[in-house]
Amino acid sequence: MVFPRDLNHYGDDISEGHILELQGDQIITGNIMGFIGVNDTQIDIRSRFAKEDGNDYFLHYMLQRVFAINLFDIKHTTDKEQVFDFLLYLFPYFLQKALGQGLYKKYRRFEYNDANIRGPIDVSRHIRQNIPFRGTVSYSTREHSYDNEVTQLIRHTIEYIKTKAHGAHILSNNKETKEAVSQIVMATQTYNIRERQKVINQNLRPVRHPYYSAYTELQKICLQILRHESLKYGQEKDKVYGILFDGAWLWEEYLDTILKTEGFKHPENKKQKGGFRMFLDDKEDESISKNSRRLYPDFYKDDFILDAKYKHLNSGVGREDLYQVVTYMYCKSAKHGGYLYPDEGSGQVCSYQLAGYNGYMHLLPFKVPQNSENYDKFIELIGKEEEYIKDKINEKTDSPCSPTSPTPPTTPPSSPASNP
């Protein structure tokens, strides 16, 4: 399983490269992180913040925050049952993502036998049920309904997960998951455990609705869970198990869990959701360019544009990255813009005033704790850093950098780190 589902999500050619390469006596990786099991060989690609003893607290913490589960004890194993169980832990993530588009509804045909005729009369059924005449008429209607084969499939998956050892915890780990489960339960009043195979068969054709696009992946993972499929690839004798993440994607999704509480919006470029226009009149697009000039910064609110970078920025910001944020700031009339990136501890919060525009560009290093003796201590320390970063963003400090601060963001583009 790969996140994001489209490896060209960031346009950085990850899909064209390798998970890892052997160069001489060194193994080189890019932005890809995760766990893989290939037959009896196990591979663990950690972040650059991993401890020498192998514990990668930062990677596991980001996974825990993004997926709202505790992944710390999940191993990269080729054991079928353990990898299959991993699907159960991913279910809440896909469920919340789908319900973010609204509860799935579709037209269904309903049959009635009463005196309130609202559709075509079913003559044969009327003869069978209402002769001699009793004052009721058999008819059918076509109505929008939240109780359909897709929501029934989700309900069956929920009920199945409840039967597992940690099922109750998976479905009640946070407020959002509990509310999502409650929505599905209330919508599927006709749930019947004996119809599970029938519901599975009804969902073999993927959901193809442009408005409910997130339900396609949710439907797929529900079928995998109910049919006991595991995350695997390859032939019987040479299977690969595991999960891989684009480090840049994971970092951005993690920041979203922090910044959304501060009023920041997180546009979805691929789905063309959110963002703002470059031109006041959308008809002017055609006179300059044939492409829609809608802008999608990583995070923004009225007076602040933030760009999430996973690579090192202590030696300066690349020219293209710099121009991009300045463009966003101008089109949004935002006085503040900046870059938020993970740091081992050497970077400093720093601000630079723009000439002419009089706005401010901020470098915001997010200091990942490096000396935590255990995971609980790491959570405590990184929680303090999250609050510190939010305070700095809200302060919008415009003080100049000290002599020991990093080089101003006018240096030539810096190359991404070879290892995440």
Describe the structure.
The chain has three domains: 196 residues, no CATH class; 40 residues, no CATH class; 148 residues, no CATH class. It contains twelve helices and 15 strands. The chain has a five-stranded mixed sheet. The protein has a four-stranded mixed sheet with strand order 1-8-4-5. A two-stranded antiparallel ribbon has the order 2-3.
Topology:
Blueprint: E1 2-3, E2 20-23, E3 26-29, E4 32-38, E5 41-45, H1 57-67, H2 80-99, E6 106-114, H3 123-130, E7 137-145, H4 149-162, H5 167-171, H6 175-187, H7 196-202, H8 214-226, E8 240-246, H9 247-259, E9 276-277, H10 284-288, E10 294-295, E11 299-301, E12 304-308, H11 319-332, E13 336-343, E14 350-353, E15 360-367, H12 375-395
Parallel strand pairs: 1-8, 12-13, 13-15
Antiparallel strand pairs: 2-3, 4-5, 4-8, 6-7, 9-10, 11-12, 14-15
Helix pairs in contact: 1-9, 2-6, 2-8, 4-6, 4-7, 4-8
